[in-house]
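We treat protein structure as text, and this decision shapes the records that our systems exchange. Because each token names a local backbone shape, the row as a whole describes the fold. An entry from our holdings is shown next, in its original layout:
>
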Amino acid sequence: MSGKRVNVLVYAGGGATLESVRHATWSLRRLLGPNHAVLTVTGDQILKEPWAASCALLVMPGGADLGYCRTLDGQGNRRIKQYVLMGGAYLGLCAGGYYGTSRCEFEAGKQGMEVVGDRELGFFPGVCRGLAFPGFVYHSEAGTRAADLKVNQTALPLKGGTVAESFRAYYNGGGVFVDAEKYADRGVEVLASYTEELAVQSGEASAAVVYCKVGEGRAILTGPHPEFSGTNLSPNEPSGHHDYPSVVSALLTDEKKRVDFMKACLAKLGLDVSQEAEAVPSLSRLHLSSSQPSQVAELLHSWQANGILAVGDDGRETIKGENDTFIVEQPGRWDMGGVTDALPAPRFGDGDKKKASNGLPADSLLDYSVVPKRLVTHEGSMPDGKETPHFNHHAFYANLQHYNTKHTDSDHAFGKVMLYGEIVTSTNTLLDKNPSWLAHLPNGLTATATTQVAGRGRGTNVWVSPPGSLMFSTVLRHSLSLSTSAPVVFVQYLAALAIVAGIHGYDQGYQRLPVKLKWPNDIYALDPTAPESEKKYVKIGGILVNSSYAGGDYTLVCGIGLNVTNAAPTTSLSLLAKKLGLAPFTLEKLLASILTQFEELYTRFCRTGFNQRFLDTYYASWLHTDQLVTLETEGGARARIMGITSDWGLLMAEELGWEDRSTGKKFSLQSDSNSFDFFKGLLKRKI
């Protein structure tokens, strides 16, 4: 098998659970980026497509191995086994570990639970037997534990360090590789062993993780889930477990040990592992969908008619923007062109070209703008959960329809067309920096992502937003004829109002959440961890609006970022909700709520301008009523905030003199040249 293999394929077909696919892709993208492209693959693609030539690693995640058998037995398994024998690599996690053995013995003799039989792959020449620990219940955390593992440090060297002697890993229903120590002469090594008493006979090694040499290739099989990070587990969600928070706490304590173990395993499989503390993740596919899928087909036809979408020299449909190139794919179609498309190319500075630990020059910049983006167009149906495991399109569109029934005074365009990627450069950049494509995107199209990385960044300075944030950018067309009656500068204020209204209108009880606005474009919330007497507000979100003008309209890209389930770096909406006894937010439902509020407010604004009704609503939510401030732009003058002007959205302040009495002098301050340090009470020039 010649050529550089860069794709890491996570099986997401029959048998794989959505949760396991989600954890596997999240973990692998962070451990292998930017050197490998981590993608999901279906059973049909394993059976029919030429995936093996570019595949560096095939991952079978957790789930039910009988589902794998139904999909892949016969031709599928022959292709997988041939791939490994010819130099490929296989990582089987929990059920994927069972599946990679010669025989599975799961809950033998227990009616309704028994899964016993030979398996075709046979990478491990013996039996995987389970349950290693009792208590497993399908679709539940009832049998979960932080399993203590003893690591074979000799078999797992770690570049630049040493793997910990032991660590605790997430376990829920996995097995033990029986008598693994007896197969050393057949290329088997025990990489980690259970230290606690097991519920089944296991052999001397109590092998939890094994390495198997298979022809020219190799496989690692696990009983527990070393790919599960405690940071992605919520200790407070209902689980059926008697002490789930303690399990999550133990996993969080051993997070670095887990990461080091995973790095060493992946390196042993021949992967190019990032050695950075926070690796740059590889970009994921983008998914274009609509609540009316036929609209996607209409968009593609429009782009073709206007020369935006064209067939390139390599035969692929391509959109070439000013900043990014998009390669158009159909769902389920395997694109063999440009195997390295998802990997960022280094751009070199003028300094030393010494190699860094990730193989790139130490002074190189990762330039994501030169990486072609894969755009999957869903013309027949919405993406399913395993294609986009971190965003539920069906839930989003259902909630969008629900909220739209409450707002009859708009066209229901916002969010009707969605562009989603798990890991993208920036939703704002993808739209705003490609103006020729942007000009042919529909009004209300919304781009959202699970994780954003900066377009360019050095080392670990690539993170823009942590997982758990709601990040999205919406396209608006604002007519030049409205410049006087409805000035475009107010759109940032409308977005802020929509965020507050979307949070308060999320469901019954959520109107009590203490969320406020800071002029001109920040969202603050009362810190739930501070004493109530302090009334301490912290930033939880922000707004960025970019505008361009062409053809009689302003084209706006309104970008919003909001801490929803992530507690760092300040607090989150879900923590606020928990304090009030409310259920945590879901990103899909909150996005739908905000978009419908945004469209209704914008529609009314175009009709009435930012009138007194808008002003009253804005002041009811902002932090600055009668606030005393120092105006850096006016030589340190002391002033009192009065409000904003209804014509151009300027911040109004009156100068104060002796004993804070008004001098009669008024100031009007623009948002694009001043910033507000709320805590210091300081208006200062933007730099």
Remarks:
- The chain has a mean pLDDT of 85.
- DSSP finds 15 helices and 35 strands in the chain.
- The first strand starts at residue 7 and ends at 11.
- The radius of gyration is 27 Å.
